[in-house]
């Protein structure tokens, strides 16, 4: 019954989204924009549709874990194939190579791919979370205190953490590239272990729960956080769908968006239950996991923030050559509709696409 309900809801969402139901138009799964009567077989096709999903490590990806444990994608008639990667760059490569259909990555690696002509757009915002540069060196109070030999771990060049470091370096040191020789690429679990054991690195630009765990240890402190770097909170990740998947599987694409939205909503209204489900994944107690899920700044939301702000900075700093002319250059229509385009001046959510 739940499965049937999911398919019905998804089909209704798709018809509404495409604006065709009332007009008597139609769409068939597998070819966006096709004409003809509504295809009753579309939900059936979606039920059989595999969707290969790329995620990464950390509490940011809690909605994916919840969707997996609660079989939310299955409710919408999808058969998810879950894959996990160590960085946004690795997710980007998996999307480019066709290993996966959709993936979750920071805005910077997404924009780097877009700049190079990768056929994809953002499908959904994915969490606003605290991000910070943590050090084990008590003498480091600001970026000016890092020595040329001090190594700083980030997930990969071009990651959110790398670009935030560049933003802050430009503010404090006058050069966005001041730390290009300091950064080392490490997955979060490895970097956290290295920082705590004081082997190889003196700082880690990180995310929850690694950031919270590191800051709970003696001798660790925060050098700078994401809001100081960017100017306001932003989407740490976006869900990205390839053109091939979006255009070739409109029902499955709509179901993907709905499934992520449901997982996000479930966490927001069931945080204690979510903590109990997620705790084993991180080797934490349910109590500590709940503490981290409710840490100030944690916001599980599908709203996108900061898309254009990252693009503007990355072009000015030379990380990309092009900047989107408008949001629809980099976002699928459902996300463009989410942001809107207020006549007479930008709306609050339009303004939140830019840095301050």
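Q: What amino acid sequence fits the structure above?
A:
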């Amino acid at each position: 019954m739940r499965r049937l309900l999911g398919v019905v809801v998804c089909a209704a969402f798709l018809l509404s989204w495409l604006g065709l139901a009332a007009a008597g138009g139609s769409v068939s799964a597998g070819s966006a924009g096709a004409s003809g009567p509504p295809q009753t077989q579309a939900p059936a096709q979606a039920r059989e549709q595999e969707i290969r999903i790329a995620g990464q490590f950390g509490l940011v990806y809690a909605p994916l874990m919840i969707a997996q444990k609660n079989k939310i994608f299955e409710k919408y008639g999808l058969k998810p194939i879950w894959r996990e990667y160590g960085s946004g760059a690795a997710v980007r490569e998996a999307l480019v190579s066709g290993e996966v259909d959709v993936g979750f990555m920071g805005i910077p690696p997404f924009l780097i791919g877009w700049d190079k002509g990768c056929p994809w757009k953002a499908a959904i915002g994915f969490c606003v979370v605290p991000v910070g540069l943590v050090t084990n060196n008590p003498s480091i109070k600001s970026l000016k205190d890092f020595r040329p030999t001090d190594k700083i771990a980030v997930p990969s060049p071009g990651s959110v953490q790398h670009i935030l470091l560049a933003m802050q370096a430009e503010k404090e040191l006058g050069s966005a590239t001041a730390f290009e020789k300091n950064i080392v690429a490490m997955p979060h679990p490895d970097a956290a272990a290295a920082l705590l054991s004081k082997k190889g690195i003196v700082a880690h630009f990180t995310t929850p729960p690694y950031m919270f765990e590191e800051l709970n240890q003696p001798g660790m402190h925060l050098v700078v956080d994401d809001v100081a770097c960017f100017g306001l909170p932003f989407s740490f990740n976006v869900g990205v769908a390839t053109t091939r998947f979006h255009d070739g599987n409109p029902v499955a694409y709509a179901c993907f968006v709905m499934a992520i939205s449901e997982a996000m909503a479930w966490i927001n209204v069931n945080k204690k239950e979510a903590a109990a489900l997620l705790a084993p994944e991180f080797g934490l107690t349910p109590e500590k996991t709940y503490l981290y899920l409710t840490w100030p700044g944690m916001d599980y939301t599908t709203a996108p923030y900061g898309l254009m702000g990252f693009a503007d900075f990355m072009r000015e700093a030379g990380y990309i050559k092009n900047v989107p002319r408008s949001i629809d250059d980099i976002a699928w229509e459902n996300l463009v509709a989410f942001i809107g385009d207020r006549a007479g001046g930008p709306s609050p959510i339009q303004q939140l696409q830019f840095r301050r």
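Q: And what stands out in the fold?
A: The beta strands are 49-55, 78-84, 102-105, 120-126, 132-135, 152-154, 183-185, 203-206, 221-225, 237-242.
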